[in-house]
Amino acid sequence: MLYAGFGLAGLVVVAIAGKKYLSTMGQPSLNQVDTLQRRHVPGEPPRFAQIIRPKDFAVLDTVKPGSEFDGKSLFIPPGTNQESLRAKPFHIYDDSFHDIIGPDPTLTLIADSGRDPLFHEATVWNKARDEVWFVQNAGDKAAGTGLRKSAVVQKVLLSQAAAVQKGERNSTEVTVIDSNVTVVNPNGATIYRDRIIFAGEGQGANVPPALYMLDPNEPYDTTIILNNFFGRQFNSLNDISVNPRNKELYFTDVTYGWLQAFRPAPVLPNQVYRFNLDTGAVQVVADGMNMPNGLTFSPDGQHAYVSDTGILSGFWGVNYTHPATIYRWDVQDDGSWDNRKVFAYTHVGSADGIHTDSQGNLYAGVGDGVHVFNPAGILVGKIYLGETSANFNFAGQGRMVICAETHLYYVTLGASGWDPEA
């Protein structure tokens, strides 16, 4: 989960003559849809992209004192403002980002839920039906969850998302899933053996955190596949991923359920675990982090990545000296992890959900959208929203869906994800 909130002030969605526009404070339309195919001019950024040169802000005329930094501050490069950054949301920090976004990337708002943070986490693509699944924010007060009810599991059709992007409809239909058994407070998810594995945070003292395996076809039969570590409840399971080499499940466990007052005090350290579904074996593979959160692997399975959101501490507030860091490990042949190193430190909020593309670039949901790092950990670009994205995911070739709490976005770009079970 990510707790630093970033508003989307000035964002207005209107329908004009059957077309969809995403306008920002009178700036040029972000997603004006027409029937013309625009071509990228060599040497120039695409129509919805802009070049941000790090050298231009290496030395600033004025650097604000730390007392004016509140952890929610958006970074506005010199010569830009919030409106101009949103008007062209693909920010090129390095030339290699051109290949990632492709010649004509687009960003389209496809759903708006008002105040309820429906579009939060557990973003996965169900290839068989070409739909994207995601869940509500269990810990947000506006969701009305907590001890009263569980977060909601939902999905959208990519065909409808593409229709919104083309101006053929105004928004996508969001379908609520009534699983059998109920997935209690899901937060992370991955596709595994043609099923969706949800990491559930638990609820109160008597509903322990658990891994749920859900059949994405009606009636959405669901099985609990893990709910304890040798008889002890986990804290609140957060994110989950499949290693493409050994096909085993890895997941993070952290105390955010307690910090958001819907789970009791923790009885285990914050750790990363490995789970073999066939044998039932569960093993700790990494510890020593403050708040292990998002989890992913390189497409070859040689490296593991975990985001540490220690800066965000629930009812304890924000501690700017704690990690907002992505770590990388080497994955050994036996599936264990070794050689932890700092991969990247995020400068707006903290990285929550993380994913890699087919070329090994890493994408992180942060306080102003999605940041993209090359395999060396260098920031090469952003998909800028001006608000927090806790999670997102690729949806096959050249498509992505981004969750931003009350907003859901559809992206077309050059990069693609990868299938851990291929």
TrEMBL record:
Q: Which Pfam families match?
A: SGL
Q: Which InterPro entries match?
A: 6-blade_b-propeller_TolB-like (IPR011042), Oryzine_lactonohydrolase (IPR052988), SGL (IPR013658)
Residue span(s) of domain SMP-30/Gluconolactonase/LRE-like region: 121-398
Question: Which protein are we looking at?
Answer: SMP-30/Gluconolactonase/LRE-like region domain-containing protein
Q: Which organism is it from?
A: Cryptococcus depauperatus CBS 7841
